């Protein structure tokens, strides 16, 4: 059955930003030097950032005590024996060059001022913006490394936190760092810190990982051990120590917590756990510090600076409106208190331009043979293969096969042959798989590639095409070569030099780059403004990361995004969830995770799709399961809208 094909344009968020030309007022740069360690600090601070010297109490002299009529005991002076002085005077002097190098280093440290400027920027592989640098300086100068970074999504909270981290590392103020983030973002944090900031972090999996100086861990680990378990008896049985106990036993110089709104309830295990982590500095990142009421903001601030907002009872009495717990009262006083610990940059205030984004779904029909292959293989896997293998199969291979059925027959053929070659599968299953592979090998038409050529004809300019499969990548490249369209491939097996050459060729010569999901990370792709999702990942965060390669700060053109969707396939179901239930293409980049966090506590979006597909009895059953999952996503979207409303009600609190 051939369905009608058409391009459906979707609603998308178009940020309307105002530009600021006003010259900021000159900041107060008066300073004073710590008498204990020599650190040059802002004149207004009461405590030395480096050594903790208290300017208000630690400089009290004996004269001060005499004025207060406080007696001090007489000093006990002991003279060193002459022989000891003689031995000291005959000590061996260090080598002149070594002594000079030490003296030179000491003088360099002595000349380093406080945080009046950032000394690590030349080491960073990033495009940074004024609001990010100002945020870093404010956190380091006035917030003493304890801050809630609450920028609106898309303004670079991760970049700000990493700049602060890099600055503290460059000045020797931190060594041991712990980053807590949702599991789905751990790899992204690790990659960005390595490629953009040159810092190697390990994702904590094994016991020995926790002994490293720079560790990334899942925020889901934040659970207090049971009462019968303590660090003391855990040492006796090292194998039973959980990640949580490892964290509590360590002392960290810096702790960074991403998606900090997950700590908004003080009665939860996560909140109690974080309050017990021993740390010197802490940065908490969230775009939504208030979800349901202002006490959530109180809880986050209390983790950073206990007592700043008083007790919870006094906070509610003085700062929360009785009619609506989301509305503040005594706003100016509360705003002053929050300014000492919280920074929120808004799109309407920063002097940068965000490009518009236009997204479309290209609804397509598989060719007759492609449709037969899809239906026959899907039915066989669902109804016979699982039974023939007694449910002992590689889920990853079957998941890849199901995705490839929406991509290209060439990719399907390769995977079917690999599965059929596995010895553990029975002969009748292998024979059926080889038969399907032979059928796939006879298919030469690919509807998606025809659609891609149509788009390239209709929309001139460079285009980035994402596919998940190397076999499909090769097929697209062949067809583009035949059409006389210059193309460049980009995939994860390339080394760094090959990637740079490929990116240079795309920028200078090629019109199309065909890339896998790993393609382009760490490279500037703003010279291209058109993207085609040839294959659709089952992980919506991967879709957003693809879009983020082009739709980002520095892009000068409106970005066009085309998503291919094949009728009556699982790909169409997934795209329907993303476009109509979550409505992700209406979101600003960064907001998607706020919605997914409402449904991914126990199972990720991708795993939920896998479960629906592998456990469905037939197409009708699968459709019903997708409908139920869609209802959950709709509720998550409504919860997100509620958060946005709370943000609007409290917006004046966060204005500078």
UniProtKB/TrEMBL annotation:
Q: PROSITE patterns recorded for this chain?
A: HELICASE_ATP_BIND_1 (PS51192), HELICASE_CTER (PS51194)
Q: Which residues form the Helicase ATP-binding domain?
A: 138-307
The GO terms this record gives for MF are:
ATP binding; helicase activity; hydrolase activity
**Residue ranges annotated for the Helicase C-terminal domain, each copy included:** 448-595
Keywords (alphabetical) are: ATP-binding, Helicase, Hydrolase, Nucleotide-binding
Q: Name one Pfam family in it.
A: SNF2-rel_dom
Task: Identify the CDD domains for this entry.
Answer: DEXDc_RapA, SF2_C_SNF
The answer to whether keyword Transmembrane applies is no
What is the protein named? Snf2 family helicase, putative
């Amino acid at each position: 059955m051939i369905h009608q094909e058409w391009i459906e344009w979707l609603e998308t968020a178009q940020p309307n930003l105002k530009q600021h030309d006003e010259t900021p007022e000159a900041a107060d740069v008066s300073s004073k030097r710590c008498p204990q360690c020599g650190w040059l600090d802002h004149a207004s601070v009461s405590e030395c950032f480096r050594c903790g010297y208290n300017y208000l109490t630690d400089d009290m002299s004996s004269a001060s005590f005499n004025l207060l009529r406080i007696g001090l005991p007489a000093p006990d002076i002991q003279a060193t024996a002459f022989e000891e002085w003689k031995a000291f005077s005959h000590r061996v002097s260090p080598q002149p060059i070594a002594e000079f190098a030490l003296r030179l280093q000491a003088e360099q440290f002595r000349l380093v001022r406080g945080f009046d400027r950032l000394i690590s920027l030349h080491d960073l592989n990033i495009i940074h913006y004024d609001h990010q640098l100002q945020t870093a300086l404010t956190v380091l100068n006035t917030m003493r490394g304890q801050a809630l970074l609450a920028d609106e999504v898309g303004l670079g909270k991760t970049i700000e936190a990493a700049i602060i981290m890099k600055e503290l590392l460059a000045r020797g103020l931190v060594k041991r760092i712990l980053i807590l983030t949702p599991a789905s973002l751990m790899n992204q944090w690790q990659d960005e810190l390595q490629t953009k900031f040159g810092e190697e972090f390990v994702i904590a999996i094994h016991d020995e990982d926790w002994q490293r100086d720079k560790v990334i861990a899942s925020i889901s680990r934040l659970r207090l051990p049971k009462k019968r378990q303590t660090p003391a008896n855990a040492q006796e049985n090292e194998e039973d120590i959980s990640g949580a106990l490892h964290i509590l036993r360590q002392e960290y110089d810096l702790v960074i917590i991403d998606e900090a709104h997950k700590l908004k309830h003080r009665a939860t295990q996560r909140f109690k756990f974080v309050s017990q982590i021993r740390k010197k500095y802490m940065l908490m990142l969230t775009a939504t510090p208030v979800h349901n009421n202002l006490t959530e903001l109180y809880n986050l601030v209390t983790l950073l600076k206990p007592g700043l907002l008083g007790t919870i009872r006094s906070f509610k009495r003085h700062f929360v409106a009785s009619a609506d717990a989301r509305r503040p009262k005594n706003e100016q006083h509360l705003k002053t208190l929050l300014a000492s610990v919280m920074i929120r940059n808004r799109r309407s205030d920063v002097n940068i331009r965000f490009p518009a984004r236009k997204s479309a779904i290209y609804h397509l029909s598989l060719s007759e043979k492609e449709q037969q292959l899809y239906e026959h293989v899907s039915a066989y896997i669902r109804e016979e293969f699982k039974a023939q293998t007694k449910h002992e199969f590689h889920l990853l291979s079957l998941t890849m096969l199901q995705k490839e059925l929406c991509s290209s027959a060439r990719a399907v053929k390769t995977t079917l042959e690999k599965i059929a070659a596995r010895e553990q599968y029975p002969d009748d299953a292998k024979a059926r798989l080889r038969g399907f592979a032979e059928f796939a090998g006879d298919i030469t038409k690919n509807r998606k590639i025809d659609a891609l050529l149509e788009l390239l004809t209709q929309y001139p300019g460079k285009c980035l095409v994402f596919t998940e499969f190397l076999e499909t990548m090769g097929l697209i490249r062949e067809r583009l070569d035949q059409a006389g369209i210059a193309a460049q491939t980009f995939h994860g097996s390339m080394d760094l030099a090959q990637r740079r050459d490929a990116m240079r060729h795309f920028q200078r010569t090629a019109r199309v780059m065909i890339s896998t999901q790993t393609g382009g990370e760490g490279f500037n792709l703003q010279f291209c403004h058109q993207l085609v999702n040839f294959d659709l990942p089952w992980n919506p965060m991967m879709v957003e990361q693809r879009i983020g390669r082009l739709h980002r700060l520095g892009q000068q053109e409106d970005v066009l995004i085309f998503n291919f969707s094949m009728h009556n396939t699982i790909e169409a179901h997934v795209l329907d969830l993303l476009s109509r239930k979550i409505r992700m293409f209406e979101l600003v980049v960064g907001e998607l995770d706020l919605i997914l966090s409402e449904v991914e506590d126990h199972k990720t979006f991708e795993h939920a799709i896998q479960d629906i597909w592998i456990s469905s009895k037939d197409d009708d059953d699968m459709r019903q399961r997708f409908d139920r999952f869609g209802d959950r996503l709709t509720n998550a979207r409504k919860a997100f809208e509620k958060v946005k409303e709370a943000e609007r009600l409290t917006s004046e609190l966060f204005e500078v």
